[in-house]
Design brief:
Length: 260
């Protein structure tokens, strides 16, 4: 059965989410049994080689969302609204979200807190399910001065809690909480009645999300909170090294790989 937004309920977890950006990996992560696939704008860093997510365009997100949707995953597919495709107001947000939904997303995710609650509310009213993203917002990296832990001060903690409540009141169906102390993620999780999906924010959440390339060892600079479960980079390097050696040594192609 295909997952729907309404399947993500408080207490129904733990929910397992991962990113995917293309057809083959969407198929693989779906076969592995994840509940949700995020077509994250992290694709800018792990696929396109950009220094951050600011260079990712709506056209990039549409293209990659289409590729993921073509895998027909059972998991819920959420697409990220990239930098400056919703900050400019509800009208732009509606237009951007429409393109991602038409590309095959079941819902969209946007970064930011109470200051974007009116945008979330407008999208939800128009029938677009929205996932919030609070704590560290990578799209604010220039203002933050780096990818740093959020919630070290009382003021930051209060803001994260207020953001969670504002987004929930605006109709968000779930919240990603990124890189905050576990105690804060716990407090947020206990204070909202929608699922919290955490990354680098400890175990007291309704689910976890990781970036696929960090999980399989394809990221050049994985964050400290990501666990590497496989070394796919080594597997690819070894396979291609063998291919290079065999062609150079005239051991490939052998008879079974061509017709006379
Ligand atoms: O773009 C992304 O991959 C994300 C995750 C870090 C949650 O937003």
């Amino acid at each position: 059965m295909r997952r729907r937004v309404s399947d993500f309920t408080k207490g129904g977890g733990p929910y397992v989410w991962i990113t995917a950006y293309d057809y083959p990996t969407a198929k693989l992560v779906d076969e592995a049994g994840v509940d949700g696939i995020l077509v994250g704008d992290s694709l800018g860093m792990v696929v396109l080689g950009l220094p951050n997510t600011l260079g990712v365009t709506l056209a990039d997100m549409v293209r990659h969302t289409q590729a993921v949707a073509r895998a027909k995953p059972k998991a819920l597919v959420v697409a990220d609204m990239p930098f400056m495709t919703y900050e400019t107001g509800p009208r732009d947000a509606l237009r951007s979200a429409a393109r991602l939904i038409r590309a095959g997303a079941d819902a969209v995710k946007l970064e930011g807190g109470a200051e974007y609650a009116h945008v979330v509310e407008r999208l939800v009213k128009a029938g677009v399910p929205v996932m919030g993203h609070i704590g560290l917002n990578p799209q604010r990296v220039l203002a933050l001065g780096g990818f740093k832990l959020v919630g070290k001060t009382e003021e930051q903690r209060r803001k994260v809690l207020e953001d969670a409540k504002a987004l929930r009141d605006a109709g968000a169906f779930a919240l990603v909480i990124e890189f905050v102390p576990a105690s804060l993620a716990k407090e947020v999780t206990e204070s909202v009645d929608i699922p919290t999906i955490c990354i680098g924010a400890g175990p007291h959440c309704d689910g976890q999300i990781l970036v696929l390339h960090d999980v399989v060892g394809l990221s050049e600079r994985p964050p400290s909170f990501a666990k590497k479960y496989a070394d796919v980079a080594a597997a690819i390097r070894d396979a291609v090294r063998q291919y290079v050696e065999e062609v150079k040594a005239a051991r490939f192609p052998t008879k079974e790989f061509y017709k006379e």
